[in-house]
Every structure is written in structure tokens, then in C-alpha cells.
Design brief:
Layout (H helix, E strand, L loop, with lengths): L8 E6 L4 E6 L5 H18 L3 E5 L9 H19 L4 E5 L2 H9 L8 E3 L4 E5 L2 H9 L2 H4 L3
Parallel strand pairs: 2-3, 3-4, 4-6
Antiparallel strand pairs: 1-2, 5-6
């Protein structure tokens, strides 16, 4: 059973090719960010889908650094456990977001994270993000 929708985040499942799409509807607080994570995990498990395209371009202010650490060190490995396979997550953001993160001495690892638990990369346009996700489909399998 899927959790109740959030007023500040939209989630959709696309069957062909299998893809979970998430979209920020207004800037998120740190609490909102973690609630969105739990919503995405529930949807990913419901549809058994490891391919996620997460559009945060509406939100141009970075979260506190501990939120990104939570994402990398706790949440994405938990998604791997919950799905039983490696999630591939493409994050969309405005270029200004990366500039802001750099000024805080935090920038996304370049150019991509290929850990034992997940694949993640950052983009400013959907076409590049979808092409990046597509390269993992043969190895990970569809949903």
C-alpha cells in the first residue's frame, strides 16, 4: 500500500521503460526532504523499481550538509536493501544549486557515485539524466 501523497512532492510510476519520477513542488525543509525519501522508498518497493529520476529544480537552496550525508550514508543503502538490487538515481537540479553547494565546500562527487549499494549522478537536464539511467538497465534489469 502506498503512503498518502505529500502536498510538496509529486511521484509517478512509468511502466515503459520502468521509471519512478519524483518532482519537488516547492522548496523543501530538511524534514520534508527526509519525508520525501520515505515516500520514494515506499513507491520504489511497491513497483519494485530501482530507476529513479528526481527533479529538484524548483528548490535552489541547499539543505544542511547532514541531510546529504544522510542521503548518501543511510538512505540510499537502505533503498538497496529494501529493493534487493542496486538503485540508480538521477538527480536534476539548477546549476545554481551546484554553485551554492560548492560555496559550502560540498559538491556532488564527480562525476558519478558507483558504490556497492547504489548508482547516483547529478544533472541539469532530463535528457542527459534519462540517457545515464538507460545504461544501467541491462545490468540491473527492468522493473
Amino acid at each position: 500500500m502506498l503512503p498518502a501523497p505529500l502536498s510538496y512532492y509529486a511521484v509517478q510510476y512509468q511502466a515503459q521503460p520502468a521509471l519512478l519520477r519524483g518532482r519537488v513542488l516547492r522548496p523543501l525543509s530538511a524534514t520534508d526532504f527526509t519525508e520525501v525519501g520515505e515516500l520514494l522508498l515506499a513507491w520504489g518497493q511497491h513497483y519494485d523499481c530501482p530507476f529513479w529520476l528526481l527533479d529538484g529544480r524548483v528548490d535552489t537552496q541547499p539543505q544542511p550538509l547532514d541531510v546529504y550525508e544522510w542521503l548518501r550514508e543511510e538512505f540510499l543503502p537502505r533503498v538497496h536493501q529494501g529493493l534487493g538490487r542496486i538503485p540508480c538515481v538521477a538527480f536534476l537540479a539548477q546549476p545554481e544549486m551546484w554553485v551554492a553547494l560548492n560555496t559550502l565546500s560540498y559538491a556532488p562527487p564527480a562525476p558519478v557515485i558507483l558504490s556497492a549499494a547504489y548508482r547516483a549522478n547529478w544533472f541539469t537536464n532530463e535528457e542527459d539524466a534519462l540517457a545515464w539511467l538507460a545504461q544501467f538497465r541491462p545490468a540491473i534489469g527492468g522493473c
